[in-house]
Amino acid sequence: MKNNDIRRAAGLALLAVSTFAISSAFAAGIPGAPAPFDKGGVKIALVTYISEGDFFQAYQAGAEAQAKALGIDLRVFPGRQDAAEQQSQIEQAINLGVQGIVIDHGLPESLKDVAQKALDAGVKVVAFDVNLDNPKIPQVEQNDHDLADTILTQALKDNGTSFNAGYVYVAGFAPLDRRNEIWDEVKKANPGIVEKARFGVVNGTTAASVADQAKAAFKANPDITVVFAPYDEFARGVKLAANEGGFASKVKIYSADISTADIQEITEPNSPWVATAATNPAVVGAVSIRAAALLIAGVDPGHNISVKPALVTQKELLDNGIKTIEDLKAKIPSFNSSDAAQAFWIPAS
Ligand code: SR1
Fold first, then answer.
1. What is the pLDDT of residues 32-87, one digit of tens each?
2. What is the pTM for the complete model shown?
3. 193-199, strands of its sheet edge to edge
4. Does residue 23 have a pLDDT over 80?
5. Is the bond preceding residue 281 a cis peptide, omega within 30 degrees?
6. Distance in angstroms (rounded) separating the CA atoms of residues 33 and 166
7. Which ligand 1 atom is nearest residue 175's CA?
8. Given 22, 199, 315, 331, which residue has the most CB atoms within 10 angstroms?
9. 228: part of which helix (H) or strand (E)?
């Protein structure tokens, strides 16, 4: 190791240690909880692949709140859509001596080996929305088949079974791949649906990049009337393109996910974004931490852990004056909490 590398490693270790020291000030243990939660001092890493956007920020906030309630020192490694960096962050987490790692999205090929390395080191691993294909690693998801089925059923209800569609998709992301399976089924069952354009990108500025692609797609296919954009950053991009290109009045956008900013976009006058199917990402973040905590306590949380999505339409938001996620929590019980990965000793977040 060169001197620069040694200094960098020492700096990272110091940063990590001080992060733990600050956040563990309240970690005195939970009376009646199984070890090691009865004494406290449990360390978990949340290693993300995507950190931009409302969904991922809310997911992280939910994970942090649940970690705090459990007295866990949570170290968050923010992803930058960089597979090599995410891999190296998992290595760092193992070296820091965490008891658990939550891997949030990523590319399976770059993660399977390092996840196995963590397991071999005795670290418990939970995967959210990345299929690590390992019986020892529970998989958390938002029931993406159900999610896609829910939103596409609404699209058929609004538009009938024959329409020209645009579709936003990037292969390789587990939730998008699962949603794509349902899109394929719906097209097969309804031959009147014609997919005129397919585009998509996931990067640090997904919405803006998708907007550029959508502009070109609308220009080349002015007869598109429905866009399936099953990620809120995709939907924002398509909406921007539809507004700027003058297509907003004849296009309807169906998406996944929701946030307070999304609610504003959906409910603004003449918005083409008419419905979404979504969970509260903060609830999913909390579930991911609870699954890791159960594993650390020696309890099997189950292999497939699912948080059920709900349909949210523009009409419902407008009719009920819903402006924020907090407002939505009052209407949709599953936006407050989930039964997944619960135990009597786990406090609510
Ligand atoms: C690039 S994958 C984006 C999706 O991940 C989460 O499952 C969110 O629902 C989002 O749509």
1. 999 999 999 999 999 999 988 999 999 999 999 999 999 999 999 998 999 999 99
2. 0.92
3. 193-199, 163-168, 226-229, 252-256, 273-278, 310-313
4. no
5. no
6. 51
7. 7
8. 199
9. strand 226-229
